[in-house]
Amino acid sequence: MVTSTNSVFQKMFQDAEKAGITLNNSRQSLEWLRRKYGTIKPSDVTEKKFISDADRRRRAALVGRLYMFLYNPKYKAELPYYDRFPLVFPFERVKGGFYGLNIHYLPPLFRVRLMDSLYDVLSNTKMDETTRLKINYQILNGASKYRWFKPCVKHYLTSHMQSSLIYIEPTEWNLAIFLPCEQFRKDTKQSVWQDSRSMIT
Q: Where are the domains of the chain?
C-alpha cells in the first residue's frame, strides 16, 4: 500500500503530539525531530509518494519557499556527487533556473542549527502560503549564525528537473528536513556530510 505524503507527515505530527511536543519553529521541536530522524525508513518516503500528490505541484519556484523535485544535473559527469531528489529553499531566480539551499547536504544536527537561524528571517509567523524566508546570498553570507548554509548552495536548471516542484507547507518544514529523502549519487551521504562539515568548520 502506498503511503501518501500527508499520511507520512500526519504520523510525525501524531508522534510529536503523543510526546507532548509542539512542532513549531522552536529549538526544542527541531531537536526532538533530529532524535527521531532514524525511526523513519527511506522506503516510507520515496519520491514517488511526493510527486504523485497533485495538490502539491507547482510550476515556478518562489524565493523563500520549500520544494522537492527530481533532478538530473547537466554536468553530473564532472560532479563528485549530487542529490537526485533535492529539498530546496530557492533564494535567487536566474535565467533558466535558480540558486537554492539544498538542506540534504547537511547532517541532521547541522540542519537543526541552520533552520534555527533561518526562522529569524520569516516574512511572517502565520506559517501558511504567505510565509517565506526573506533570504538572499548577501544575508546568508553576512552573518556567522548562517554559516551552515555554505555546503547547501546549488544552482538548479529548470530544463533538468524531471518532475514538478513539490511544495512543502511551512507547517511541514521541520518535518521535511528530517525525512530520509536524500538520494545522493556517486558517493554516500556519510561522505557528502563529511565534506560539508569540512566546508563549515
A: 5-200
